[in-house]
Amino acid sequence: MLSRSAAPLSPPITNGSGAAAILSAGIGCFALAALALAADKSPAVRSFLNFYKPTGPLSGVTTSAILIWIITWVLLELLWRNRTVAFSGIKIAALFLLALSFLLTFPPVGDLL
Hints:
- By secondary structure, the protein is mainly alpha-helical.
- The protein is 72% helix and 0% strand.
- Helix 1 packs antiparallel against helix 3 (57-80) and helix 1 (16-41) runs parallel beside helix 4 (87-105).
């Protein structure tokens, strides 16, 4: 009779890295919409975000949003890379932030604020 040898244990599959990427993308989208709206409505924010004069405040809006996205991604990756997180809640939060971003950049909604 053949004896079965113990199969080597494989490392557990975690979803933290994927969840970090998805949630940080939602946060980055929301940051872009919120900064664009703030630069459109506030002269002080508009002048603060004017990094490159020919482009105007759009240069600061996009640069700041990308920095927020990357920093959030790195921080969440460091926190969650070896963990299994509740993916359904993160997916809902990311989709909510994306939908809110679309609403904030839609002119009739932006003009109400």
